[in-house]
Write a structure and sequence with these properties.
The protein is α+β, with helices and mostly antiparallel strands. It is built from 9 helices and 10 strands. The chain has a 4-stranded antiparallel sheet with strand order 1-7-2-5. A 3-stranded antiparallel sheet has the order 4-3-6. The longest helix has 27 residues.
Length: 241
């Protein structure tokens, strides 16, 4: 369990003890795999299951009546998938693997039992859900108020911070399987505009995104340009000892 991304993520808020680690281990009983492009959660779905992403990347999205897609967020290892479908009894969005993924399936009864046995774990999951909500708010600011270059820079920095938290990234960069089409659907841009903006950031000496890897050329310059303040992701270290 030491290399479990969920432990790294929740451990940023709660100093996990043996009781919490034992309950987390018990949740990882039902492992499933899904291939890229095959939805594992459908908008309007009403079954009582959620997932923890163990490996690979996914995206959550909504389809408009005219067929256009808006990607709400990308999920990385350690993230919950479809958690709101347990709480709301119906999923308000779809989840599609971006790559082949492995997940742990969790039924509502198992999750509620885990929360009853370890309230500190429930608090940590609530923190994670609140953090995800804060990121969605920031994405609204991205689309509504930041220009295309700032929007892209801010998104890549946020993604890097998320990956660093689960030991999959650093201040140097990170592996990233996202295509320009996926970035376009997430950032409200066209694929052509995404290509142009990435070139602009590269030529400005901030970041290079090539061959599936994001490499920071000047992290501080990019953070200043994007007005990136990671405090909304609350990564100061465990608040509950």
């Amino acid at each position: 369990m030491e290399n479990n991304p969920l432990i790294h993520k929740l451990g940023a808020f709660v100093a996990l003890k043996d009781a919490e680690l034992s309950v987390l281990a018990s949740l990882h009983k039902r492992r499933r795999t899904f291939v890229a492009g095959r939805d594992l959660v459908h908008q309007g779905q009403s079954d009582q299951a959620a997932y923890i992403l163990a490996s690979g990347w996914a995206c959550s999205y909504k389809i408009l009546e005219d067929g256009q897609r808006q990607i709400v967020d990308f999920q990385i290892p350690g993230d919950f998938l479809g958690l709101r479908s347990i709480l709301l009894h119906m999923s308000d969005h779809s989840v599609e693997p971006v790559t082949d993924i492995e997940v742990t399936e969790i039924h509502a009864a198992d999750l509620l039992d885990a929360f009853a046995r370890t309230p500190r774990l429930a608090t940590a999951v609530l923190w994670a859900a609140s953090r995800d909500e804060a990121m969605v708010v920031e994405h609204l600011v991205d689309i509504g108020r930041r220009d295309a270059a700032q929007r892209m820079a801010h998104f890549l920095l946020e993604l890097g911070a998320r990956l660093t938290l689960v030991k999959l990234g650093s201040k140097q960069g990170y592996a990233c399987p996202l295509t320009q089409y996926l970035l376009a659907d997430a950032l409200g841009l066209s694929a052509v505009h995404v290509n142009r903006v990435l070139r602009q950031l590269r030529e400005a000496g901030m970041v290079t995104f090539r061959d599936g890897f994001v490499m920071y050329e000047d992290y501080d310059k990019m953070a200043k340009f994007a007005q990136f303040d990671p405090s909304y992701m609350d990564h100061q270290g465990p608040l509950l000892k």
